[in-house]
Automatic annotation (TrEMBL):
Binds to DNA and alters its conformation. May be involved in regulation of gene expression, nucleoid organization and DNA protection. The lineage of its organism: Bacteria, Pseudomonadati, Bacteroidota, Cytophagia, Cytophagales. It comes from Lacihabitans lacunae. Pfam families: YbaB_DNA_bd. Gene3D superfamilies: Nucleoid-associated protein YbaB-like domain. Belongs to the YbaB/EbfC family. Its main location: cytoplasm. This is Nucleoid-associated protein ACFOOI_06730. It is found in: Cytoplasm, Nucleoid. It comes from the Bacteria. Keywords: Coiled coil, Cytoplasm, DNA-binding. Residues 4-31 form a coiled coil.
Length: 112
């Protein structure tokens, strides 16, 4: 027989675990770099840019376009890395609550 109370308990547990996982995303960080480490970007699991480091020798008005390209590359590199870390954390938190269904990817659930 269908256990409605049991199911509601599981739903509440899942909601609690998902909120816990989302709260932890800001603690997960990743750094990306470009230009041989001359530009570094730090992002968190919520896909927020936290810091940019630029080697002083790159700051030349004549090279503004190159610097812009290096910043974009470093940020994209960091975002790609943190996405994998966030997915692993989400899988750990929801293990046993959400069944492993082929093609069901939690990573897409938190993209903006």
């Amino acid at each position: 027989m269908f256990d409605m109370m049991g199911m509601m308990g599981k739903v509440k547990e899942m909601q609690s675990k998902m909120q816990e996982a989302q709260d932890k995303l800001s603690d997960i960080t990743a750094e990306g770099e470009s230009g041989g480490g001359m530009v570094k970007a730090l992002v968190n699991g919520k896909k927020e840019l936290l810091n940019i480091e630029i080697e002083p020798e790159l700051i030349n008005p004549a090279d503004a376009k190159m610097l812009s390209d290096l910043i974009v590359a470093a940020v994209n590199n960091a975002l790609s890395t943190v996405e994998g870390k966030a997915k692993v954390e989400m899988e750990k938190v929801t293990e046993g609550i959400i069944p492993k269904i082929p093609g069901f990817d939690l990573g897409d659930m938190f993209k903006k």
